[in-house]
Amino acid sequence: GPRPVSPPPWGSAGLAGAGGPVGGSRLAGGPGTPLLALPRGFPAVTWLVSASSSLRACWEKPDCFLCASLAELYSYTEGPEFLLNRKCFEEDFRIHVRDKKWTELDKNQHRTHAMRLLDGLEVTAREKRLRVARAILYVAQGTFGECGSEADVQAWMRYNIFLLLEVGTFNALVELLNMEIDNSAACSSAVRKPAISLADSTDLRVLLNIMYLIVETVRQEAEGDKAEWKTMRQTFRAELGAPLYNNEPFSVMLFGMVTKFCSGHAPHFPMKKVLLLLWKTVLCTLGGFEELQSMKAEKREILGLPPLPEDSIKVIRNMRAASPPASASDLIEQQQKRGRREHKALIKQDNLDAFNERDPYKADDSREEEEENDDDNSLEGETFPLERDEVMPPPTQHPPSDRIACPKGLPWAPKVRLSHLLWHQGEEEVEQVPAEILYQGLLPSLPQYMIALLKILLAAAPTSKAKTDSINILADVLPEEMPTTVLQSMKLGVDVNRHKEIIVKAISAVLLLLLKHFKLNHIYQFEYMAQHLVFANCIPLILKFFNQNIMSYITAKNSISVLDYPYCVVHELPELTAESLEAGDNNQFCWRNLFSCINLLRILNKLTKWKHSRTMMLVVFKSAPILKRALKVKQAMMQLYVLKLLKVQTKYLGRQWRKSNMKTMSAIYQKVRHRLNDDWAYGNDLDARPWDFQAEECALRASIERFNSRRYDRAHSNPDFLPVDNCLQSVLGQRVELPEDFQVNYDLWLEREVFSRPISWEELLQ
């Protein structure tokens, strides 16, 4: 079995620090602070496992959500570098500590060595600095060489990362990252190379790996966290979102890397890691969907608005997926199969939501499906959703009596949409919240940032074909030597497809988070970002993304689970064969791709909602059949956002379309919120008539420019930049407020500056 290791020295608030080697006579919260006396020879891990249920769960069972986010950071091509990082650490560690392992040191010894490593980052020799950075990365990866299980790795990783944060590692890494971004020699060398590989981005990848691990670990709370760690988390979040890095937030620096990469000046930048770090940084500084919901409720209370009628996340979680409208080929196939299955009992509809009933995070649900299965291609459920915390946050366990009772009827409370009467309130107090600070940092180059993100999204889309002028997003996945065997080629093919899927996931998450936070902070901030996405052809790009076999994309198996971190560093790896690679893993669906699809649908909804000109773009680009094909994915959340997009354009599609798509119309009625003054089903709305759509977009753009000019234009606030008035009458007619001391000494000024000076009036007139 896995060998026992000493527990991390968490301190008195959580797990105790090892006062000596494993099996010592006591555990100590710090030097000389006895916590619990143990019989000599009693294993510390045995005491740890029996200490409490929450700590036992943390120690014995790995966090699979964290496992997924850690695994996606590394490409399979980077696998050999894990051992290289360990070698760099151990060579340096043995110089200073000869008779102990890292897991056997106390907290003070850990801090001393961490500070020693931090000093090593300041050496001028690039090779030495890289070796020290690799040693720090090994510490951040949980010193896996001394761990026996994935749970051990995660526990030590959490302790080590808070230790690195405490000694100031993150700020040192930011300085090094700045230096690498401005490294003109590396950029010019990469531009001249005909083919860029993994080796060209080594320094950047090591730095970005450490920073990602720090941000992703610190932003998540865990049971047993010390009060000291909670304080560090709040401080770190505040500093990460503040303009402390070159007078701008850290996210703006990462956006700058994205635009520099897309401009062709830095083709060696490891863009997948940059985008993942950008996503987690935005998530850490601004907050996720649950934080958004609480902030929205707080703002409504401050403004005296009634509370929200329901929690949308809870409503969607309790919705059932509908059977998609059958195509002609489906109907023929069903007729042929109907005879064979008449003798069988009626089977429950099995769909992507079926995992809710077997999900260990949900209570048992004995409700039967209300619909028959009219599609034999439905997917089977999975017991553990990897992206569940991001598609919809995982619910806590409740007894069956605490479950939300879903009343019969419509899932959403109807609303009445009120028209946004705009007025200028004069000078306003701008609260410097994280979203406001980020918007101010992005504002000067926001159009370029949006174009760059969409360029990368286009290059990563599965429907895109390779072109000579498209950007190369595979620089941080291609090895120096191309594969020579069939097995190596298959492995690289899986790695490349997985790489593209992760990029799509990160970009879709960043765009959706920014849109939601800017909309909550100020509606014109949201409109400014949304309009530039529309100008950069985001709508046809997303429709092009969905114009594929979406079922194949959702069920794609572009992963090799035995090569995922941290599994690959604590287990003996089986021999890979072409057959095992072709079979893929045991997961029925790719939750990463489902997450990306839902995000893109939500972005499309936000861009087109209540905008007639943009809704007409959906009609012009013939999105209805594309979206109807997406309804084949029987997952409630994805279906909801597809139906929303179909609802907004129904009034433009004509009576014949509505007549021949009554099942879709019925699904819209059942699952999408109703607006009592929105005549979506019949097209009698005067606002829906197709005229003056260009004027609508231009008026919105003028309003956005007025907002940005009034609130952020420095010329309006700095008198030195105001235009000069050259009209003599206008200047003399202005009322000037004179200071009080001047008025007291006015007679003296007249005597000295006017009466005592001779004036040549003729010269003055000439």
What does this 3D model show about the protein?
It comes from Dromaius novaehollandiae (Emu). It holds the Pfam family N1221. It is found in: Cytoplasm. Keywords: Cytoplasm, Phosphoprotein. It is a single chain. With 766 residues, the chain is mainly alpha-helical. Helix content is 55%, strand content 2%. The protein contains 38 helices and 3 strands. Strands 1-2-3 form a 3-stranded antiparallel beta sheet, with no helix packed on it. A hairpin with a 2-residue loop joins strand 2 and strand 3. Helix 11 packs across helix 13 and helix 22 packs across helix 33. The termini are far apart.
Task: Supply the key terms.
55% helix, mainly alpha, three-stranded antiparallel sheet, 766 residues, single chain, phosphoprotein, cytoplasm, 3 strands, Striatin interacting protein 1
The N- to C-terminal Cα distance equals: 104 Å
Regarding quaternary structure, what we see is single chain
Report the portion of residues in β strands.
under 5%
Average of per-residue pLDDT values = 80
Structural class: mainly alpha
Q: Helical proportion?
A: 55-70%
Widest sheet: strand ordering: 1-2-3
> Mind summarizing the main beta sheet?
3 strands, antiparallel
Shape: globular
Question: How many DSSP helices?
Answer: 38
Low-confidence sequence ranges: 11-61, 343-407
Total beta strands:
3
Radius of gyration over C-alpha positions, nearest whole angstrom: 31 Å
Pfam family, one: N1221
Family: Belongs to the STRIP family.
InterPro entries: Far11/STRP (IPR040185), Far11/STRP_C (IPR021819), Far11/STRP_N (IPR012486)
Keywords: Cytoplasm, Phosphoprotein
